[in-house]
Amino acid sequence: MATYLIRRLLIAIPSLLGISLILFTVLALAPGDPFSEMATNPNVPPEVREAIRASFGLNDPILVRYLRWLSAMVQGDWGFSFASRINVDTLILQRLPTTLFVVGSSQILALCVALPVGIYAATRPYSVFDQIANTLAFVGFSLPTFFTGLLFILIFSVSLDWFPFVYRSDIAATGWRWYWEMFRQAIMPITVLGLFQAASYTRYVRSSVLDVIRLDYVTTARAKGLSERKVTLRHITRNALIPVVTLVALQMPAVFGGALVTEQIFRVPGIGSLLIDAILANDTPVIMAVTFVFACLVVLFNLIADVLYGWLDPRISFS
Amino acid sequence: MKDTEIRGLIADVKEGSLSRRSFIKRMAAVGIAAPIASQILVWNDVAMANATLPYKPTKAGGAGPLKILLWQAPTLLNPHFASGTKDQIASRIFYEPLAGWDKEGNLIPCLAAEVPTKANGGLSADGTTVTWKLKPGVKWHDGKPFTADDVVFTWQYAKDPATAAYTTGSYKDIKVEKVDDLTVKVVFTQPTPFWADPFVATVGQILPKHRFADYVGAKSREAPDNLKPIGTGPYKFTDFKPGDILTGERFADYHIKNQPAFDSIEVKGGGDAVSAARAVLQTGEYDYAWNLQVEEEVLKRMETGGRGKTSAVASGDIEFIILNTTDPNTEVDGERSSVKTKHPTLSDPAVRKAINLLIDRDSIQKFIYGRGGTATASFVNEPKQFKSTKLKYEFSIDKANKILDEAGWKKGSDGVREKDGKKLKYVYQTSINAPRQKTQAIIKQACQKAGIELELKSVTASVFFSSDVANPDTYTKLYCDMEMYTTTQPQPDPERFLNQFTSWEIASKENKWLGRNVSRYSDPEADKAYKAAQGELDPAKRAALLIKVNEIFCEANVILPLLSRTRVAAAANNLMHDHSGWDVDSWNIAAWYRT
Amino acid sequence: MAGSTLASPSVDPVVAAPASAPVSPGRETWRRFRRHKLAMISTFVLAFLVLGVVIGPWLWPIPINDIDFSAQLHGPSWEHPLGTDDLGQDILARMMYGGRISLAVGLAAMIVATIVGVIIGAFAGMSRKYADPALMWVTDLFLSLPQLPLLLLVIYLFREQLKALFGVEGGVFVLIVVVIGGLRWMPVARLVRAQFLSLREKEFVEAARAQGATKLRQMVAHILPNALGPVIVAATIEVSAAIIAESTLSFLGLGFPPDIPTWGRLLFDAKDHLDSAPHWALFPGASIFLTVLSINFIGDGLRDALDPRRVI
Q1: CA distance A10 to chain C (A)
Q2: Considering the entire predicted model, what is its pTM?
Q3: CB B467 to CB A44 under 8 A?
Q4: Model confidence over B202-211: pLDDT tens digits?
Q5: How close are the terminal C-alpha atoms of chain B, in Å?
């Protein structure tokens, strides 16, 4: 196992290098440039626009810019934001706690809803509970988050006046009040995101439990006289978890990357909104840093998922 | 009017029983010009500024926090690097210029003791120098005094091309001299009728020499103050998270003793305009939201909530359509829409005239922009003395059909008009923005009824407004038949704004499409009038020349103005605020208060 | 997991095919499918939706872009059965016209994403040598690519060429299907690969291998049918995701021209009027929901019909 892990980690280095080169090329070739607002401003003469472009090294060939970026990155310098004139790592670190909290909580919420509901629904297929759970799940992923988010705001902020809908990263309160305020402002984004995610998880859980539940070994387990609870948890769920692990591993990088639409609606200062602002302002160093960290997490969680498959089903071997 | 009477009135102004404006009006009635009347008040220690917002509170502080919501978040706080309005608004809370513009287009002194005039010796007769008297006793947030050295330094800082300041255009061709500690002289290389640009409003915010002296030129980006400003403004910097939130607290030593009224300020960014309006008008989470490009229908409904109100002020921004008279489908010397080509159908003035008649400006205003714009046929609308009175608009499908019939454009079997095998089919391009797409739909429908077929195209704003040489979809490339966007007029003077109607500014491959004349149309008469206006010191003659430039382009139906845009803001019911279409929303933020 | 230890080999569909087959497998599947009530109802609902958007615009007299400022935001009435939007345009006409595109994009993108995902996932899951790391590298790469700049790049590089090749709407359609399908196959690939890793070690596959089944036959005939559960779920989610993604694309200028009212776009335009004109959002939302729902039940029915272990 240890040699397998070391080998995979070693392979990850060249593969990440390859990914970073492609990312950089895509960003460099993508249309738009960081100084677009300047272009409509009659106060800025063309030669100054050119000077600014040159001072940020935008006129060099792509490969030169990539190598410059790479050597800086290796030395721990993540680059310098065009838009904020600040180091990129500072910018990301400012956003990271909020993102981890909001998106992480929503993922936990999604799993807490999807696992019990999905398993229970699958053990009683086509029962009333199953039908209701299914219908809600379909509603859940037929409606995009921009829509449910707005619906929540109209109901809970405008009509009922229960929660604020502008998320503030600095709450001017201490002690339990701080937790209360934090809860009030975080509940809507977490719920919107969590339920959207839970809708699709529920479907996957239900489907894979259904696949397993009719197999002969489950019947055998029941015949041995094991309690229904034990059969469901030990025999069925463990074997049904492979697709769920795959999906969670796919979603984990997003806990870092943030959730774009939800962050915009509730003004959550997360990495997702940093990325979209950077993209709209064509702030390449920020886009590159965020996507590269994201890529590292994608590769890492793919590896973790592979290890987990081996644990869930010991017959899976990676020789 | 006797001395004693004037003194009595001044006392009334001080007590607040008479507004500054009525004082100035009364003075004008007895033949004392407004600038002089305003200086009478200065000499008598009445707080400057606030021509448009009478300031009621008697002492500074005590009104709690002021919460502002910008739906685009500020990303940096150095006004000379501010790439967008959002950054300028944020930095103006901490830094101040010598003077700013109020909503009526009047110059209001801020760090200057008075506005330079010919009468007070501030302006030379030949129009080449401006002498600014600075306000005494002004302190930076760290306690150091503000002097002429800071003003001269700001010029040195911004003019250095290596600094790469966005404001450099206002400083690179001038000279600034220190006369004494509280006087500076700006010297222009040629007579400059519009002198109120350097050190004024958004481009004019003064930086402290003692904080920035080591960061001129290439090192400018390393200055710690780029993100932690120390200025002269009404609020002191507390904390800033780029793209998210900015906080400040009241500056106790502010140079207007009874200002500001609020104890702290918070500027939150992000989200979209509709939900920003909602947070002020419906839930009351914030006191003020800026630049509400929200459909009238939606805005009206939110206002019924009763928690806030919206206000609109005039600006020089204009939403307009360009009809391309060059050919966007033929490539000559590596560029399309080259001035060497002629558009197969739009070069016919009759077609252009017909299209102008097919724009239902009144409906576009009434149903889409509402208070956000006023239908117009003139490219320049503000300040009023520069607006053409001759230009009129009309919406008539019948007249358009008649003009096209007369010009020989006959409807084909598909309902599209044609002549000599050339069809009236156009690509109509704009940036992605809900009101613009609705405007496109309205115009498309009217054109259809007159036998003109439009293909609508929308380009994402970050690409459309970029200066990317390789991209065919930027607005300066004009690789389409019709194009619509808003162009901003940064000052209450249209001279620099109108350079987009001159032949030497035509965007082409040669100038990497950075030229300001996107329409590519030119007229020697317009060039001549523009050049004459640049050196004309008589305001009336100058205005006439600039109006002529405007009329030549509008009458040729190359430029079809749609709406003169206003700036719409929302504020809590109890907030007294003052925003201006000629300056950033926070230009007079020291004078905001709560009732 | 699907295909876990089977008690008796006779249950395995392929290893021991029934000795006598009175009807062909196709007809047998159809017979079983018809027994699945929800699947049959769903087939009719989907057929109704498809017919509605295909024939509807021919029958309904009001054009989609007929602006009428006197009828802004009217609720459902006889004249406008689904109400009007903020320019007074008829929502029924717009829904039917835009539905063609939404349905076509949703289904086509789902098919592209599923097929690409299944093929890549299957090959990666079967490989015991270099194909797996290589294909997973490609998957990781696609997962990491920032979509927005990539989309802008794609428009910029290919729009004009495709427009010349397929015409305005055709070119955009091909582009959108390729883009949505091409950017959304990765979860399917990962799911299929994970299933394959587990299934390829099972006894029935070993048995097939022992009987000399080629690798391709093992994949297609033995493992794939047992790995379909998550694929069907992914495919139904894909349909709604594609319909909504299409509207996001048109905001980037990549989608259809702004005057074409696809369902996703209608939903987006309606959101700011949700409190005063809920009908505007309700109908497109319900249509997307019905489409997803019926596709899912059809998928369920197909799986049950194809699974010989189930007695129907």
Answers
A1: 12
A2: 0.82
A3: no
A4: 889 999 999 9
A5: 35
